[in-house]
Structure formats: C-alpha cells, structure tokens
Amino acid sequence: MANIAVQRIKREFKEVLKSEETSKNQIKVDLVDENFTELKGEIAGPPDTPYEGGRYQLEIKIPETYPFNPPKVGRCLTTLCSLCVSDRAAAMTLRTVLLSLQALLAAAEPDDPQDAVVANQYKQNPEMFKQTARLWSHVYAGAPSSSPEYTRKIDKLCAMGFDKNAVIVALSSKSWDVETATELLLSN
C-alpha cells in the first residue's frame, strides 16, 4: 500500500477509536490481521428505526489510492436488506463512511436502491417493509425480537424441511405470503 494511504488510514483509524461522535453512535472499527488495508467495522442500528438494537458488521477495504479514492464497503458481514454500497465520494474518511452507512439505515433511499425488491416493498407497503427489516435485524444482527406473525410463518416453512435463511428470503421477497414463498422454495 502506498505510504500516503498507510499514514492517512492510521491517523483516521485512531480518530475513529477516539471520537466521541463514533462512540456516541456506537460505531467501531478493528484491523483484520493487523493489516491497515482490511478493516472490520460495526455500526449500531439507529434509534427509532426497524434496525434499532442490531449490530451490523461491515467488511472495509482501503484502496492503495486512498485518500484519493474512498474506503470500499465490499460486503456486509451482517445480512441486511440493501445497506451495503461501495460507491462513496472520494472526500469521505473512514469515520464519515461509517456514519453515512448508519445514517442510510435511518433514511432509506428507495429511488436509488441497492435491492429493487426491497425498494419496491418500501414504496408499496411501508409497514411490511418495517416489519421485514425488524425481522432481518433480529435474526441477523441481534436486535430485539420482531413480529410474532412473521416468526410463525418462518417456523411453519422450516418445519417442512426448508433452510431457515432460504425461508426468510423467500417470505421477504413474496410479501410474507406462505403459499407463494413455498412455491418459490420448491422451484429452487
């Protein structure tokens, strides 16, 4: 990694660790294998959102061209509907990338979606979107329990021998209709 990138990310890494703002917003960052090119971030679900109470793990790659190119959030280690994006403005620092991702949870952008199915549900049935997001947050990010109705539907399909993750994806994508979700599961 270029020397300027290493120097900059070391400084920003320390900034994130010491920042009252990131501490208050429950944002963390750790090195992966003591390597400043690969980091693991964690953001807390914002209050008063379906993501509240969840802890979202992020894989962050620092390009050799940093700071002229921004950190890349390559993938979410916590399964989450449409959170992760990799195109960020070059002016963004490690701290601002993490804060921006957390803010994205609080203010979704359905007209610029990362996932068209999720964006459509957000627009067509906002309450179902919130319940789905709460359930995913509960199952994959440790948020408090969610909709008992959705949990019963998951349990019903799991009792038929389907994989829980596949069931959650099928039900989520089929507006929690057990019949159409079952058809989808059987077709795969």
UniProtKB/TrEMBL annotation:
Keyword annotations: ATP-binding, Nucleotide-binding
Keyword Lyase: no
Name of protein: Ubiquitin-conjugating enzyme E2Ka (UBC1 homolog, yeast)
SUPFAM superfamilies membership: UBA-like, UBC-like
InterPro entries: UBA (IPR015940), UBA-like_sf (IPR009060), UBC (IPR000608), UBQ-conjugating_enzyme/RWD (IPR016135)
Top-level taxon of origin: Eukaryota
Keyword ATP-binding in record: yes
Residue intervals of the UBA domain: 148-188
Coiled-coil regions listed in the entry: none
GO terms assigned for molecular function: ATP binding
Gene symbol of the encoding locus: UBE2K
SMART domains (UniProt xref): UBA, UBCc
Transmembrane stretches, start-end: none
Sequence ranges assigned to domain UBC core in this UniProt record: 4-142
PANTHER family: UBIQUITIN-CONJUGATING ENZYME E2
Pfam families given in the database record: UBA, UQ_con
